[in-house]
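Data availability (excerpt). The following record was deposited with the supplementary files.
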Amino acid sequence: MNASVIIEERLQRTAGLLRMRRVLQHTATAGCVASVVVLILGIAMVRGWMENVAVVSALLVALGFGGFLAWLIVMASIMTKSIPRKSLAASLEGGDSRLLDRLNTLVFLEKNRRADVARWFFTRIARQTGGVLEHKSAPAGISFARPFIHLCIFIFLFVSTCFFYAHFHPWARLAAADADRRARNTIAQKNPTVALPTNNVTEENKAWGEVRITDPARDLKVTKVDVVPLQIEAAASQSLKQISWFSTVNGGVESSHVLPSPPEPRYAVYQPMVYLDEYHLADWDVLTYYAKARTQPGDGYASDIYFLEVRPFREDILKMPGGEGGKAYQTLSEMTSLIERQQHIIRETHQYEQSPDAPANLRQQDRQKLADGEDDLDDSVRHLYAKMTTDMENQPIGEALDNLAKAQHALDDSSRSLLDNIIPDAQGHERSALTDLIAARKMFQKAVSDHPDSFKDKPENEERDPMADSAKQLGDIAEFRNETKAARDFVKKTAEEQRKLAGKVAATPRLNQTNLATDESKLQKSLADFEQQHPQMFRQATNETTTAAKSLDQAVNALEKRTGGQRATSTAADDLDKLAAAMNRQAEGRDLGDAYKLKKVLDKQMDALNEMQRGTNDLSSEQRQQAATASKETMRQLREITESKTGTNNFGPELHDSLTGTNKSSVDSQLNKLASAQNKQDQKDAAGEARKGLQNISEAFKNSLPTAMQAAQKHDSLNPGGQEGFQHGMAQLESLKQQLESGHPLSAGQQQKEMNEAASALEQGLTDLYGHDDQAQKLVALVDDTLKEKGKAPDMVTLKKLMDQLRNFSVEVADKQGKKENPEITNIDPSRLPPAYRGRIEKYYEKLSERKP
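Predicted structure:
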């Protein structure tokens, strides 16, 4: 190949590398500048220096467009600008010592190459240079160190910016600040478009608006075939622009339902129908809904949030193993109660968001209450988890427990977001917690339906010795607790030794680190041997255990090869610390589970003592001694749990107080008397007194549970009765009426189930509310005669008549009770009403009088 062509090709290749270096360096520099600017904007949002979303958005758009335009200009300049051949030659010479300055000489002689003196030298030097470059491509002497440094700085700034935005949520804070600013402006803004009545002398001339769902205006328990009529009202001092209602299934993606434009500019009423079968809902799903309205100036108003919970027909629920008194029914009721509690917190948070103009101190108190509610619910979910694992230890409830664990994380995140005043994040975590709780309930119901035999309450074997059984259970619990403590201590000690070994590696020259590989190998083997001997202790920390074992193996290899030993041993120490933390978290859960196991043992011991008190069993001295020892051991282990750090967090002080002081001394004394009693009467007396002491401990256990868990155990959420039961029955009748009117017929079987559901709810509600009142009992008989087991729905006239009778009776009773309780407000003096309110009432009746009949 011609020497000149080879030289020119190498020069052009060098020019390309130089341009690439400049492109990389300038691009990284531009990225650094953009990251710094975005980070500064984030800091400004977090510190509250910026409160306008539009301004920040405009700045970011301008930054993005301007930065991209500047980068294009710089890139175009780099690609079009020629590089001096002298610089290209110098770069090639610097990268290949074989050229011996020939290329620099050629570039120097290029201008005078046609001169007689230089011609002979130029041709010969070019031939020599081409020969060198032809045999082996000369590497260009171009250093990419500076562009690489710029790139590293850009990556660091970019990651820092991303971490800042992910950790401090500046956009959420900006949105909250913008909402507060807009609320303040709305309150301060004068409304020139609304002419208030002349007699409205006390009302301020300010923009206002309100959206309400006036029917049903409460949460409902429905079946998946029900029809729910809604009534949405919106009013504002400014013209309404858009009115919608929104629905969410199980806390998932929100769907919008736009309503028609209102015929009147400032007031609207809508009556949409919710056909639940169109949402393809399943049993135990929850539909969340609320309404929103916007005015022409852009102000927004929202109603309260309500929930429609889809339930199976009660007759299907009662088919669960054990029926209404079974463990499956009780667990399902407790789950439902916790879900209702989370729904209440979601509603309260929504209301908090709608009142940004409240005083700052009150808003802080409200956030604290909401966060405390989430913390209490988090504790209640943990207790439910422990109770289920204790009561249903060998039953297929793994998926339900997994979802309960997810709900705990979401509740914890929600509480922290509320305390940090990041309301959008808090609402997202609240919905996630609701989703997980609903999923846990559905998975539990599915497990019961798929494996009904596994959930049947197994009868106690009368031939087994309850005292020996109790002693065995206590021994197993104590053994397991000791094994757990030994595993925690072993992992903690291993982590400490690994940390010391990492320090030795850091202080030892690399050539001498091979000697430390033996120590590392011993640590690795000891952990593996301990795990093999106690596999159950590591079962719930599989990921952390696997990671730690892998890190130890890598540390051994690194020390043996004398490469990267310091980094590998430090990583292994970190992973062992994570394993130790995971073991500690599991120990907290196991302590709670052990407490519930001990509570079961305590209840069995109370039953045994009750039989002794009644004299139904004749026990030997040895058996009585065994019973007394077992009861003392139960109290000792429970006290040990309550005095631990985890026990203090899991239970209230009542349980610990009942296991110490007077009550414990009294129980111990009676148990000693029981063991040493010489006659049956003394045995009965001591057994009775000891049972009372254990009963105090059992009651203290219940009273020490989180508030939401206590409420869940006291209240049957699946059969509330009373006013709620009456309203549920009326809602079922309303749904049946809507189905008949709208042409959405049900099958005969579903229709009869719905009528039975309504009849049962109404009968229980009327009985709970009004007892044996003659008129109430006549209505109960009428409901039973009209709805139960008729094979088909009553005609529309009969159904409406029944509903009217039920409503009228309920209103009459409420009026009578109201007159007895508040006789002073029977007559209202209009002059005592505010002038603004009187003015609006007068205007309202003026409008009514103007309408033609």
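Summary of structural features: Residues 565-614 form the longest helix (50 residues).
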